[in-house]
Design goal:
Layout (H helix, E strand, L loop, with lengths): L4 E7 L3 E3 L4 E3 L4 E2 L4 E4 L2 E2 L17 E5 H10 L16 E4 L11 E4 L2 E8 L4 H7 L4 H8 L4 E7 L1 E3 L5 E5 L7 H10 L4 H7 L7 H12 L10
Parallel strand pairs: 7-8
Antiparallel strand pairs: 1-4, 1-8, 2-3, 5-6, 5-12, 7-11, 9-10, 9-13, 10-11
Helix pairs in contact: 5-6
Length: 224
Amino acid sequence: MSLPRVISIHVGKVAPLGPEGVPSAFVKQPIQGPVKVTPLGLEGDEQADLSVHGGPEKAVYGYSLANYAVWRQEHPQHAAALIPGAFGENLCVEGLQEADLCTGDVHRIGSSRLQVCQPRQPCFKLALRFDDKFMPKAMIRTGRAGWYYRVLEPGVIVTGDTVHLEDRPNPDFPFARLIELISQGKATHAELERLQDMEGLASNWQLRAREFLAHWPESRIERQ
């Protein structure tokens, strides 16, 4: 079986988005040649609102190539726009989907070492990108959220690099389940106990799990 590989790399500059002209780097352009991976993301990539985007635990955004075919089938009105990079990802990956991941997976891509730490939570800018208020809800409903990497080792990547699974600290905790918990809630007590100190999980979700455990059984994980 062939390894997953990066089929395109995308970076974006802050620019007006949608009719309202909201500052955003959502729209990204494919780039050729080697790209440096820093602790805060790809060199040349920007974020407009650092309170919710970017940072060490949202450094690099990965998305599955296979998801695009399904999106085009379900939303033919957007088919022309539903191509790699359309969801603002930095890396479009062939041969890897959310269901193939476990929380905390460590990938070697080029000379960089990246860790899957949390899913994307779509905001209103996704609706602006497609001029369709239903797109964020569709991403939540389908679980085709993509994944954020933290950078464990900076390096260089280039289109065509393979994605090597180097470590899987949580083989019994599918990433798809994490997406479900974050988007829909209803975590069990046992799941919250796992999440509060889960290796590789983004620190904000570890903290939220501890907070909900402190108020169990009244609380549950809810969307931010």
